[in-house]
């Protein structure tokens, strides 16, 4: 049954803090960094007001934040942190350790361009640097999705066939500092949905002693990596079940990808994050003009939903992939995945790679329309990386 | 070395879920130099037993018995502390067939 929900006008950062409040984690360790700061600020207020029971650790760096969270999660605590850009980069070493130690940590990440030159605005270079770390990566389009995905992420992370950490990405400033209406579920509903954490391999369980992080050489390291692959495959099985359960209480549907008028479209754009909202607007405008365009929004980037991509994009005339980060000297991250996914489809579409929005550069409806027009005119070149909003 | 298991048969995350499992790891395979013990020179002072980092000195009631080559990794500390030079380090190659 869909629960009655309270509508609040809040930012994406506040939506993340609200979700954390309702999760009531045992431990939160965090270090402030723009544009993640309001999440931690708001959550620290909840701690100070006694609204949550969380032990808050104001650490001296992000490396320590992730380390403290790894320790807490290994002890069996529900442990969370949040970060952005260089903070995430400073965590990098422990980000891998969290995943390979199979710790169910949920971390909101507020996407911001990595230095240098120093920049505080949105792009996806921070999270893309962690794409091979073994974390599940979810991308929100707006504040509502930030709120919802954090609960889904928690349940996914703690699933015994998964036991992987999850990043819930939101675009810096665009989502994190933009006020929108967010529907908040009752605390009791969330409590029921997330349930009690099932203790697995807790360091505090003295009856079943366990060692975390031992030396793992050529005789077993390889096998442990293979297990991580399996856990990612299990995400594909478990995520739809959790999303369904969440839909029953919230009325909001989540899947690996969201098709927005892509089913009958001839030309489809693929993107991550908040830009999907702008693309939907452009799709509506162009549909009114009789142009058969659509959008495939990627909600889950890791594990990559290859089957869904193939299902939606097979046989399309043109596919435009938008990337908010680059891989210098190679194809952009999302484009590379889409292109590789389409290798096996029966009818391969024309493909185009478009980079946009680096360092917070605006992307306008006109730019999106321009990329769609390229596709409609048959002017997509598979090996050419193009740029939207870049001065020549 | 204990028989190696496949990825489906081991705990996740590199976790060790069984106490005392280091016993199953025969560090003797690392050895390049082998300590050779000469009972005739030994005075059972137990210095070697105290210093051996791998508990590879076998003793019974304070009497030095032997070296456990399953775990002795050949560091040579025993030989260097022995006041009677009762332990001599020899290259493993000398013992290969
Ligand atoms: S060589 Fe090292 S490991 Fe071997 S018995 Fe002597 S002290 Fe122990
Ligand atoms: S240190 Fe030398 S003398 Fe002393 S117990 Fe060992 S082998 Fe014997």
Low-pLDDT sequence parts of chain A: none
Number of domains of chain A: 2
Spell the H/E element sequence of chain B. Answer: EHEEHE
What's the mean pLDDT score of chain B?
94
What's the CATH class of chain B, please? Answer: Alpha Beta
The total beta strand count of chain A reads 15
Supply the number of helical segments of chain A. 12
**SS field, number of helical segments of chain B:** 2
Biggest beta sheet attributes of chain B: 2 strands, antiparallel
Distance between the termini of chain A: 55 Å
Task: Kindly state the number of beta strands of chain B.
Answer: 4
Strand order of the largest sheet of chain A: 9-11-10-13-14-15
Taking all residues together, what is the mean pLDDT of chain A? 97
Would you mind describing this structure in some detail?
The complex is a heterodimer of chains A (392) and B (97). By secondary structure, chain A is α/β, with parallel strands linked by helices. Chain A has two domains: 6-250, Rossmann fold; 257-388, Rossmann fold (3-Layer(aba) Sandwich), CATH 3.40.50.920. Chain A has twelve helices and 15 strands. Chain A has helices at 12-23, 37-48, 62-75, 85-100, 125-128, 143-158, 187-194, 221-250, 275-288, 306-313, 333-341, 365-376, and strands spanning 6-10, 27-30, 55-58, 79-80, 106-111, 136-139, 166-171, 180-184, 257-260, 267-272, 293-298, 300-302, 318-323, 350-356, 385-388. In chain A, strands 9-11-10-13-14-15 form a six-stranded mixed sheet, sandwiched between helices. In chain A, strands 5-7-6-12 form a four-stranded mixed sheet. Chain A starts with 5 loop residues before the first strand and ends with a strand. The mean pLDDT of chain A is 97. Chain B is an alpha+beta fold. Chain B has one domain (24-95): Alpha-Beta Plaits (2-Layer Sandwich), CATH 3.30.70. In chain B, 10% of the residues lie in helices and 20% in strands. Chain B has two helices and four strands. Chain B has a two-stranded antiparallel sheet with strand order 1-4. In chain B, strands 2-3 form a two-stranded antiparallel ribbon. The radius of gyration of chain B is 16 Å and the shape is elongated. Residues 42-48, 64, 82, 84, 86-87 of chain B line the site of one iron/sulfur cluster.
């Amino acid at each position: 049954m869909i629960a009655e929900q309270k509508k609040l006008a809040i930012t994406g950062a506040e939506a993340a803090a609200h979700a954390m409040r309702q999760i009531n984690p045992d431990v939160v360790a965090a270090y402030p960094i723009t544009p993640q700061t309001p999440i931690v600020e708001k959550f620290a207020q909840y701690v100070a007001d006694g609204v949550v029971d969380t032990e808050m650790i104001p650490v001296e760096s992000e490396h320590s934040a992730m380390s403290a969270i790894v320790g807490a999660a290994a002890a069996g605590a529900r442990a969370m942190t949040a970060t952005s850009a260089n903070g995430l980069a400073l965590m990098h070493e422990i980000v891998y350790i969290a995943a390979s130690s199979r710790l169910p940590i949920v971390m909101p990440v507020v996407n911001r361009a990595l230095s240098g030159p120093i920049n505080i605005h949105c792009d996806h270079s921070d999270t893309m640097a962690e794409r091979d770390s073994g974390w599940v990566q979810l991308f929100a389009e707006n504040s509502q999705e930030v709120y919802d995905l954090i609960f889904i992420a928690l349940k996914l992370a703690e699933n015994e066939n998964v036991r992987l950490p999850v990043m819930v990405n939101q675009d810096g400033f665009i989502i994190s500092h933009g006020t929108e209406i967010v529907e908040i579920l009752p605390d009791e509903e969330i409590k029921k949905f997330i349930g009690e954490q099932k203790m697995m391999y807790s360091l505090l369980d003295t009856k079943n002693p366990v060692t975390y992080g031992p030396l793992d050489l050529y005789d077993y390291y390889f096998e442990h990596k293979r297990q991580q692959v399996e856990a990612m495959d299990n995400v594909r099985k478990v995520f739809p079940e959790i999303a369904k359960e969440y839909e029953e209480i919230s009325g909001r549907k989540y899947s690996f990808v969201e098709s927005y008028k892509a089913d009958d479209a001839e030309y489809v754009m693929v993107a991550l994050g908040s830009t999907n909202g702008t693309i939907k607007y452009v799709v509506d405008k162009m549909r009114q003009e009789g142009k058969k365009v659509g959008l495939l929004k990627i909600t889950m980037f890791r594990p990559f939903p290859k089957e869904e991509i193939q299902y939606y994009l097979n046989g399309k005339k043109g596919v435009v992939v938008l990337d908010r980060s680059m891989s210098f000297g190679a194809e952009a991250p999302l484009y590379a995945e889409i292109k590789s996914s389409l290798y096996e489809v029966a009818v391969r579409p024309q493909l185009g790679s478009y980079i946009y929005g680096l360092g917070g550069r605006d992307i306008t409806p006109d730019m999106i329309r321009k990329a769609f027009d390229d596709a409609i005119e048959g002017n997509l070149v598979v090996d050419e990386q193009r740029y939207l909003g870049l001065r020549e | 070395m204990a028989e190696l298991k496949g990825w489906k048969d081991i705990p996740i995350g590199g976790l060790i879920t069984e106490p005392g499992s280091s016993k199953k790891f025969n560090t003797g395979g690392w050895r390049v130099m082998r300590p050779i013990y000469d009972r005739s020179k030994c005075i059972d002072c137990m210095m070697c037993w105290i210093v051996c980092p791998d508990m590879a000195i076998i003793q019974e009631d304070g009497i030095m018995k032997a070296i456990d080559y399953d775990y002795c990794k050949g560091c040579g500390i025993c030989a260097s502390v022995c006041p009677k030079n009762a332990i001599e380090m020899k290259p493993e190659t000398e013992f290969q067939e």
